[in-house]
Specification:
Blueprint (H helix, E strand, L loop, with lengths): L3 E6 L3 H12 L4 E7 L3 E3 L4 H6 L8 E3 L9 E5 L2 E5 L4 E4 L5 E2 L2 E4 L3 E3 L7 H4 L1 E2 L3 H21 L6 E5 L3 H21 L7 E5 L11 H13 L2 E4 L4 E5 L2 E6 L2 E6 L2 E4 L3 E3 L1 H5 L9 E2 L5 E2 L2 E6 L4 E2 L1 E2 L4 E2 L4 H19 L13 E5 L5 E5 L2 E4 H19 L2 H7 L7
Parallel strand pairs: 1-2, 1-9, 2-5, 9-22, 11-18, 12-13, 12-18, 13-14, 20-23
Antiparallel strand pairs: 3-4, 6-7, 7-8, 10-19, 15-16, 16-17, 21-22, 24-25, 26-27, 27-28
Helix pairs in contact: 1-8, 9-10
The structure holds flavin-adenine dinucleotide and nicotinamide-adenine-dinucleotide.
């Protein structure tokens, strides 16, 4: 009899963690991993690549550093559809693959909410390609000012004020003085605006902590507009609403960070979803499809305490990956199954290289301590999804920069 096939889609935090754990178990299973690229990237550091404070190679490593060639068949390809009834996965270049167990971990894409002009005229930060494009555009535009003298070349708008936006602002405000010297533009003429729809900034933190973080960015020249939803993006223009009136800001760099949704493959494959996420069963499988697991940013897991799904984070994606590997083992070995449980350890947002704000295990952290916490979290994540080699090569040990 042929071995049962476990097919894992996506080599992000969730998918790679499943593979890493499952291959250790030496079960009588064929493990197949499919990923668009032959590398894993640390999505949590995309803002650094987009701002140009770290090169892409710093946050990437080969999938095969983790997926053992003797135990895992790696297919570099793009998944286009999952056929649930036939139990097959359709790929762009290769023949469809059949599965006995399927782990869907295809991650996130940018959420545009259907706002006109977003796709054409703004830059999202959702993968290595988009982060590198955003970086090249920023560099070219700022460099161009010396010739163009167009003040909009020095105007940057960051759309939304969630964590991605705040972390990106932290990085660019760190880098601008260096770029001003290199590209020959007056630093004081740079205009950075962050436009947020909601009336309050960083509502998940206490008033004091949120103010601490925002004040750092304000001191570095960021102008925050709150309660001002963006309605349209035109070439070099952001249209937003303020007190019932439509207003415009001109900027030749527009960064789009108003949130994320799960992979479009989920909807295209007919799963019951909301914003690309499937509300999963207690064992992270899909209702009526007990051999399909949905994990990471394509899943919604209910937090009983808040009555709302947990925010999509690398932290929960890694825990889900570990759980699914154990769950498959238990099923194969006919052992009892326990439901997935998650308790967040907290959140830290960096504000450039040497500051940060957050809550860690119920305690607030800020400033330099916040930055150390953030770097320790990055290092722990590298060790959890990768190994000691990836940690030593890609880890953050520049605590005093
Ligand atoms: P991903 O990490 O997105 O991985 C998905 C993988 O699937 C990728 O390798 C991708 O190439 C591949 N893939 C996608 N589509 C296809 C396809 N069709 N075919 C084949 N392969 C495909 N969370 C935290 O916990 N802490 C943080 O500090 C933090 N910081 C963040 C900073 C930024 C700038 C952003 C954008 C997010 C941050 N997050 C953070 C959230 C976190 O990055 C995500 O929740 C996490 O990446 C989800 O993991 P995942 O494995 O589901 O998906
Ligand atoms: P988000 O959804 O957390 O924030 C997006 C922000 O954009 C929100 O404040 C929202 O009100 C605003 N917005 C939405 N539509 C708008 C509009 N039309 N006009 C103006 N503002 C608008 O998204 P994110 O920051 O990209 O984060 C995505 C996920 O990744 C979240 O789950 C987040 O927790 C996680 N993340 C975590 C960290 C961290 O832990 N350090 C860092 C980055 C991202």
């Amino acid at each position: 009899m042929s071995k049962q096939k476990v097919v894992v889609l996506g080599a992000g935090y969730a998918g790679l963690k499943v593979v890493k754990q499952l291959q250790k178990k030496n079960l009588d299973l064929d493990i197949i991993l499919v990923n668009k690229n032959n590398y894993h990237y640390e999505s949590t550091q995309l803002h650094e690549v987009a701002a140009g404070t770290e090169p892409a190679r710093k946050i990437c490593f080969d999938v095969e550093t983790v997926a053992d060639k003797d135990k895992v068949m790696f297919i570099q390809d793009t998944v286009t559809k999952i056929n649930r009834e036939e139990q097959t996965v359709v790929l762009e270049k290769n023949d469809p693959i059949k599965y006995d167990y399927l782990v869907v971990a295809l991650g996130f894409v940018s959420e545009t909410f259907g706002i006109p002009g977003v796709d054409e005229f703004s830059y999202p930060l959702v993968n290595i390609t988009t982060a590198e494009i955003a970086k090249s555009h920023l560099d070219e535009t700022l460099r161009n000012y010396k010739e163009s003298k167009d003040k909009n070349d020095l105007s940057i708008v960051v759309c939304g004020a969630g964590f991605t936006s705040i972390e990106y602002l932290g990085e660019i405000t760190n880098r601008i003085p260096k770029m001003a010297a290199e590209f020959g533009f007056p630093e004081s003429d740079v205009k950075i605006t962050c436009i947020e729809a909601m009336p309050k900034l960083l509502p998940m933190f206490s008033e004091k902590l949120s103010k601490y973080g925002i004040d750092i960015l304000k001191k570095r020249g960021v102008d925050f507009k709150v309660g001002t939803p963006i309605k349209e993006i035109k070439k070099g223009i952001v249209v937003y609403e303020e007190n019932g009136e439509l207003k415009e800001i001109k900027a030749n760099t527009i960064i789009w960070t108003t949130g994320v949704k799960g992979s479009p493959v989920i909807g295209e494959s007919g799963f019951e979803e909301r914003r690309g996420r499937v509300m999963v069963e207690p064992d992270l499988t899909v209702k009526e499809y007990p051999n399909i697991y949905m994990i990471g940013d394509v899943s919604a897991v209910m937090d009983k305490d808040s009555g709302r799904p947990f925010p999509t984070t690398a932290q929960i994606a890694l825990k889900q990956g570990e759980y699914v590997a154990d769950n498959i083992e238990n099923r194969v070995l006919d052992k009892p199954i326990t439901p997935f449980e998650f308790k967040s350890l907290g959140t830290v947002a960096s504000i450039g290289n040497n500051s940060g704000i957050g809550n860690v295990m119920g305690k607030e952290v800020k400033g330099y301590i916040g930055s150390i916490m953030k770097k320790s979290i990055i290092n722990k994540s590298l060790l959890t999804v990768g190994n000691t080699k990836t940690l030593l090569k890609k880890g953050r040990f520049d605590y005093y920069r």
